[in-house]
Design brief:
This protein is of the alpha+beta class and 362 residues long. It is built from seven helices and twelve strands. Strands 1, 2, 3, 5, 6, 7, 9 and 10 form an eight-stranded mixed beta sheet that branches. It is rod-shaped. The N and C termini lie far apart (147 Å). The relative contact order is 0.10. The protein binds 2-acetamido-2-deoxy-beta-D-glucopyranose (NAG) (3 copies). One 2-acetamido-2-deoxy-beta-D-glucopyranose (NAG) binds next to loops. Belongs to the ligand-gated ion channel (TC 1.A.9) family.
């Protein structure tokens, strides 16, 4: 009886522990007895540990042109083999949050992240580790990254953007850790975005050379195509109507200068407002975007219709004066060039007293 309990008590305890969470510590401490978590697997063999990574994207946050950044909500998973843990259990052991501190895990971070929870302690984020009897370890982490993304807005809003995430170990160089993608594609849970259409992802792995060593990285590049609908409704259609509206002046009475000017200037201001409100949400890039060209062309049309009003008004004014003049010089031939020069002079007010002199002569 004594020996029976001695032999079977640990086994019973072990079995009980798989059912209840309360005595997890005991399994953990027996499981990790003699395990040095500071040392990576295969350290003694002298070959680097290969970490097979994959990414599941739950959804994309807003892609912000103004700050050139975007947000990704995802699960980053890493698989590797720790031969020191092989054959210790007959079943897969899954540990979570703070218990993960008992096992060696790699330290990936996102190179182009502006904000990220990747380097936060496992106790504070969603994370889990599954250890197979063979010693294969799967480490999954809920990762939220606000990453930088350089955008070329030359063909905005008909543009496509490619934004990447680059992962690599912070402390281990290629001598210790090699990252590889354990997938050919990235699964994306929610592809729906308000302004963009998700076009797929490309995976690549590389080695970056720093002064302090070579580091293995894995990169995923997401492609997004902008939906033009918003800009059709907000900019293109209103802009077309404003330009068409500016043509109303051509049907207005040529002497009604006040109203013609008012309409012309209002349409110019509307286009300026469209241009300003649109560029308010975009970075202050030094090149014109496709939409800028479009709005500048519209602006030119509206401006030219206003110029036309001015020209008609001025010519009309001086034509009236010329009529007077022709009346007084009815027997003298007035050449066309002379007529035009008097018109221009009349317009800028040089020969205001012409009428008077004519009156004097008659
Ligand atoms: C695993 O199972 C085998 C037989 O199925 C047994 O011989 C071995 O002792 C078990 N190992 C552990 C760690 O439970
Ligand atoms: C890093 O890589 C370069 C070439 O890719 C190589 O010349 C260099 O020796 C490597 N450095 C280390 C520390 O491995
Ligand atoms: C696509 C791919 O390579 N998947 C592999 C990821 O890693 C697991 C475990 O090593 C393999 O079973 C998959 O085939």
């Amino acid at each position: 009886m004594e020996t029976f309990s001695k032999i079977h008590l640990p086994v019973l305890l072990l079995l009980a522990c798989f059912r209840s969470v309360n005595c997890n510590d005991d399994v953990i401490s027996t499981f990790f007895a003699g395990y040095d978590k500071a040392v990576r697997p295969d350290f003694d063999k002298g070959k680097p540990t290969t970490i097979m990574a994959d990414l599941y994207v739950e959804s994309f946050g807003n892609i912000e042109e103004a700050n050139m950044e975007y947000k990704v909500y995802s699960y980053f998973r890493q698989r590797w083999t720790d031969s020191r843990l092989a054959g210790k259990l007959n079943r897969t052991l899954t540990i979570k949050t703070a218990d993960i501190e008992n096992i060696w895990v790699p330290d990936p971070y996102c190179y182009n992240a502006r904000e990220s929870n990747m380097m936060m302690p496992d106790a504070e984020i969603h994370s889990s580790v599954s250890i197979q009897p063979s010693g294969d370890v799967l480490y999954s982490k809920g990762v939220t990254v606000l990453a930088s993304c350089n955008m070329d807005l030359r063909s905005f809003p008909h543009d496509s953007q490619a934004c990447y995430l680059k992962f690599g170990s912070y402390s281990y160089s290629t001598a210790d850790i090699v990252f590889k993608w354990n997938a050919t594609d990235v699964a994306v849970g929610t592809e729906q975005m308000a302004q963009f259409e998700y076009r797929g992802a490309e995976l690549s792995s590389d080695i970056v050379v720093f002064a302090i060593g070579n580091y293995s990285i894995v990169t995923v590049t997401f492609s997004f195509k902008r939906r033009v609908g918003y800009y059709l409704i907000q900019v293109y259609f209103p802009d077309m109507f404003v330009v068409a509206l500016s043509w109303i002046v051509f049907w207005m009475d040529k002497d009604d200068m006040g109203n013609r000017m008012a309409l012309g200037i209002t349409t110019i201001l509307t286009i300026m407002f469209l241009l300003g409100s649109l560029n308010g949400t975009l970075p202050k890039v030094s090149y014109p975007k496709a939409l800028d060209w479009y709005l500048l062309m519209s602006f030119t049309f509206v401006f030219l219709s206003l110029v036309e009003c001015m020209v008609v008004f001025v010519l009309n004014l001086s034509a009236a004066e010329d009529k007077e003049q022709i009346k007084c010089k009815v027997n003298r031939e007035v050449p066309l060039s002379r007529k035009i020069s008097t018109s221009i002079k009349g317009a800028i007010g040089i020969n205001k007293d012409k009428k008077l002199s004519c009156n004097k002569r008659t």
